[in-house]
User: What shape does this take?
Amino acid sequence: MNDMYDLVVIGSGPAGRSAAELASFIGHSALIVERGLPGGTVTTVGGAPTKTLREAALDLTRTHADQRMSLAGQLQTLRTRTLSVCRSLQSATADEIAARGIAYLNGTARFTSCHSLRVDLADGSVRELTARAVIVATGSRPRRLPNIAYRDPAIHDSEEIFRIQELPRNITIAGGGPVGVEFATVFATLGVPVTLVDPGDRLLPSMDRELVGVMQTELERAGTRVLLGAGIEQAERAGDRLEIQLSNGERLTSSALLLAAGRAPNIEGLGLDVAGVGMDGRGRILVDRYHQTSCPGVYAVGDVVGPTLASLAMQQGRAAVCHAFGLAFGIPIDHSPSAAVYGVPELASVGATEEQLQAASTPYVVGRCDLAKTARGAIAGQAGRLKLLVRADDRRLLGVHCVGEIASELVGMAQAVLHLAGQVDVFLTLALNTPTYTAAYRDAAIDALAQLAALAGRPRALHLQLDGVRS
Ligand SMILES: Cc1cc2nc3c(=O)[nH]c(=O)nc-3n(C[C@H](O)[C@H](O)[C@H](O)COP(=O)(O)OP(=O)(O)OC[C@H]3O[C@@H](n4cnc5c(N)ncnc54)[C@H](O)[C@@H]3O)c2cc1C
Assistant: This one.
């Protein structure tokens, strides 16, 4: 049986799903092939389960602080809640796909030619498909390190860790990126001593250095040992423990090891060579600015092109569909996506970092507000910091970074201002409700404007250029 579609998408993660949804919305027949569960990494081993674990761990420690729930009980509670959230998101994804008139096959797809695919269905049958356009949105999986015995039941990658049967006495986590830091937070919150190891000179290299420092201090205060400049060279079993050899010569003894050392693209078995789809030396599919591969009409989006964020993966999916069906992509892919690390506290950012501005010799000032000094922070007893990076010559907002309880939400407003190339002054024209953390934008803006006034050697009131505003 050979089915024809305008669009066949391989993978139902954010990239593939958003592509199929747009194609269907503009009147094209679309089919998604998914070998796993609806929603991809987000609803199985990524954003949803990790953030649920964090919330559940925080809840557990708040609710049961004086009741000392057993470790087994804690793990069961976390497992139940995580599974329930994932199942509900998977079912919502499946419903949404069906409601939008998109066909869906549970099976594994591979190319038989540039525009033809074979799907081995979960029920054992086979379907042959032909499509005007094919989008590869097969995502990524944890990268595996050499010299590591992954068969050892105490050694986990970021997918297997969800299946642990008991909480370890202590854990070493390799990788100081968002995944490593988020798991470190979860284990530390549950009272498991954590050693977080990274070969770089800092955690979270893409985030604001100053605020990463604040987060690291909080991680250490919560009992996490942070070891920088040290990669994992080897891990061997020694009785009921693991002996871990680090690149700096240090040896660690640990009950468990979690490797969160980056992601590798899912390309195996796709038959990309048959379709003539080119890849780089690291196995990532090569695409042009429209996300088209070296095979015309075949596109690749999301993590299979390089690790990204769910939000960007969705935009890439839509961009590919626009090109495939001759539509102008009216809203270009956002080059200032907001990103967050869900530790305790959260860390979030949008736009340029100080390092980037310095590298580009862009003149800027930093407006800061300590969240503890805002009414909301004082009421909630929460600390944190909001930083606005403002261009010195035209007062445009260039970047916003925040560490604090709801940092991931707080940077949203700044993203809109950045997107519209707005000036920092906008935060003084808005009557920001109080008590809210959002009101911190006003204080940080005043701080930035005061510095700009000082730089320009002008009275602050004149520099504000706003009727009725007094600094
Ligand atoms: C632990 C963790 C936490 C994360 N947290 C966040 C976060 O907080 N915010 C954020 O923005 N991003 C987060 N990410 C990143 C985010 O999950 C990815 O960027 C996003 O899922 C990429 O989407 P995708 O559609 O490209 O791929 P995926 O979501 O990985 O989906 C790919 C799908 O393709 C299917 N597939 C693969 N091969 C085939 C085949 N041959 N046939 C059929 N189906 C196939 C897979 O089963 C999978 O379901 C996190 C990632 C991880 C690992």
